[in-house]
Amino acid sequence: MASEPQTGTIDPREAAHFGAQAADWWDPEGGSAMLHKLGPARLGYIRSAIDRHWGSDPETLRPLAGKRALDIGCGAGLVAEPLARLGADMTAIDAAPENIAVASDHAARMGLTIDYRACGVEALVEAPYDLITSLEVIEHVTDPTLFLSAIARLLKPGGLLILSTPNRTALSRLMIVTLAEGLGRIPKGTHDWSRFITPDELEALLTAQGLDVTDRKGLVADPRYGFVLSDNMELNYIMAVVKSPA
């Protein structure tokens, strides 16, 4: 991960941990297997939120055409690439240069144009984005308030933000830390349970930044499909958030 001043949101230990997994990101059976299992449910939620927010036809292939999108904590591009295919003018950032190198190479091979950068969100200064996504990231930053403040600054008035993160519950400690990491389904040391944020805590942090939560759903494990959307947010959850028009 690129070094940041101590006032930034990047934790160098987290960056090194995820950078060490860079070559494995696109392997659905590798260290990022859990993200691949989460993928369909998360992307389905994002697409529904896009259509609901901008009134686009669910059958339209490129609902983000003409819109600028940012994926924060992009890893090797598991979310950035689908958003680019939906037509977004896509920027994606990650703290680990190793991830950015893998992501850039993969996008080039897929024929996708994505502006990948190795930096923290606080380093971005350009014009606001219509859509920002940050999935399974906020639990790894040093300062969630600073992180969300930077996001609020970068989100266009009337823009859409999608966040997902594990809930801080006894179930998440058991399933994510004790079992998933203990059994090697997630690389050991990936999560610090004390950094997990509850939905109500996250909504309060967002409200303090002038952002409004319009929807939230749980992500629950399903042996048939990997993960599915649910009203049960005890393990993991995803939120749609908007910035009021100026």
Keywords:
single chain, 246 residues, alpha/beta, Rossmann fold, eight-stranded mixed beta sheet, 7 helices, 8 strands, globular, disordered N terminus
Beta content: 15-25%
Helix content: 25-40%
Written as H for each helix and E for each strand, in order along the chain, the element string is: HHEHEHEEHEHHEEE
Give the CATH topology: Rossmann fold
Overall outline = globular
Number of strands: 8
Mean pLDDT: 92
The named CATH superfamily: Vaccinia Virus protein VP39
Biggest pleated-sheet summary: 8 strands, mixed
Taking all Cα atoms into account, the compactness measure Rg is 17 Å
CATH architecture call: 3-Layer(aba) Sandwich
Within the largest sheet, what's the order of strands? 3-2-1-4-5-8-6-7
How many H/I helices? 7
Secondary-structure class: alpha/beta
Q: How is the topology of this model organized?
A:
Elements: H1 12-19, H2 33-54, E1 68-72, H3 80-85, E2 89-94, H4 97-110, E3 114-118, E4 129-135, H5 144-154, E5 155-166, H6 170-181, H7 199-208, E6 211-222, E7 226-230, E8 236-243
Parallel strand pairs: 1-2, 1-4, 2-3, 4-5
Antiparallel strand pairs: 5-8, 6-7, 6-8
Summary, kept brief:
Helices cover 34% and strands 24% of the residues. By secondary structure, the chain is of the alpha/beta class. The protein has a single domain (12-243), classed as 3-Layer(aba) Sandwich (Rossmann fold).
